[in-house]
Write a structure and sequence with these properties.
single chain; about 55 residues; mainly beta; two-stranded antiparallel sheet; two-stranded antiparallel ribbon; 4 strands; about 0% helix; flat
Length: about 55
């Protein structure tokens, strides 16, 4: 498995969660990106101008 780091100019604010079931299996989300498919932990990001606090 290859791990790649995003260039600094595309860094974003977000969070990920490690979700395990009773058998310690890890939940991953399959994401189709241009030219590749990757598996990532579930989570989300904060867009520019968006509040991190729930209203």
């Amino acid at each position: 498995m290859e791990f790649r780091r995003r260039p600094a100019e595309t860094t974003s604010l977000g969070t990920r969660a490690v979700v395990l079931d009773e058998e310690d299996r890890v939940l991953l989300c399959r994401c189709a990106l241009p030219g590749e498919v990757v598996c990532v932990a579930p989570g989300g990001g904060v867009e520019e101008g968006e509040s991190m606090h729930r209203r």
